[in-house]
Amino acid sequence: MTESRRKLVWFVPQEALEATRDAVFAAGAGRIGDYERCSWYTAGTGTFVPRAGADPAIGEVGREERVAELRVETVVPAALAGEAVSALLAAHPYEEVAYELYAIVDA
């Protein structure tokens, strides 16, 4: 029986790519068979408007920002998903981190 896995996806500025990857890999993510540190990423543009009370790492309250970001994907054992997300949040420079966690269904 195959261990239950999750797909962890997050959005990060280029300069924080390696710090976030290192953190989630140290928490047990990114292993597929005999391989480790497995991930995939691609470039895109993130948009957001910091509202009153926000303390944005990039931009100003009330002004829409467009930021070059990377979408990063990796796998993580379901039992370690919480630890991987916690590691991601601790390593990420943003006040509010955009991430997604999906169940992987093995056929």
As a percent range, the share of strand residues is 25-35%
Question: Shape, please?
Answer: elongated
Parts with pLDDT < 50 across at least 5 consecutive residues: none
Query: What is the share of helical residues?
Result: 10-25%
Average pLDDT over all residues: 95
Structural class: alpha+beta
* Terminus-to-terminus distance: 12 Å
Strand ordering within the main sheet: 2-3-1-4
Rg result: 15 Å
Number of helices: 2
* Topology order in helix (H) and strand (E) letters: EHEEHE
What is the number of strand segments?
A: 4
Largest sheet properties: 4 strands, antiparallel
Describe the structure.
This protein has helices spanning 17-26, 81-91, and strands spanning 5-13, 40-48, 65-77, 99-103. The chain has 107 residues and is an alpha+beta fold. The protein has a four-stranded antiparallel beta sheet with strand order 2-3-1-4. The longest helix has 11 residues, at 81-91. It is elongated, with a radius of gyration of 15 Å.
What is this entry, summarized?
The chain is an alpha+beta fold and 107 residues long. Helix content is 20%, strand content 34%. The mean pLDDT is 95.
SSE topology:
Layout: E1 5-13, H1 17-26, E2 40-48, E3 65-77, H2 81-91, E4 99-103
Helix pairs in contact: 1-2
Key terms for this structure?
single chain, 107 residues, alpha+beta, four-stranded antiparallel beta sheet, 4 strands, 20% helix, elongated
